[in-house]
Design goal:
Length: about 160
Amino acid sequence: MGLEIGTNPLDMDTIAARLAADFAAELTDVRVQEPDTVVARCDGAALKDVARRLKAHPEIGYETLNFVAGVDKVGHLESVYHVYSWKTNTYLELHVEVPQATAEVDTVCDVWPAADWHERESWDLVGIRYLGHPDLRRILLKDDFVGHPLRKDYVDSAENHPHA
């Protein structure tokens, strides 16, 4: 009989160890953070391939993307992917360091379509450009807004408030 949805035959330490072994060349700092969450770091150059393989993993399979967050860590940015496995009823929090100077990383919209609006929000507020995104444009702020207001170095501009 196949796996039932929400049935986790593996404990969290086993899932973390399996991910660390199966993605040894791509994932670093793999660890259990919460009772149901594994955290790992991934190089931006490997992100697209890792995302595809995580989604297709036969035992764990992180099929669903719940959220993408852009984070300013003062010195570098991070794109953080929160994905879910229906097979194991667990989460993976995948951190990708993005250089502040270029602020670019590949989109994962073609792997997890739910990334579409989340990547747009991250672009809008933090300034991470998702290369290959099908429609990367502002989603919360007006089209001619200057800057990315959740960046720690952001300084507001009078241009953003023409009626003030």
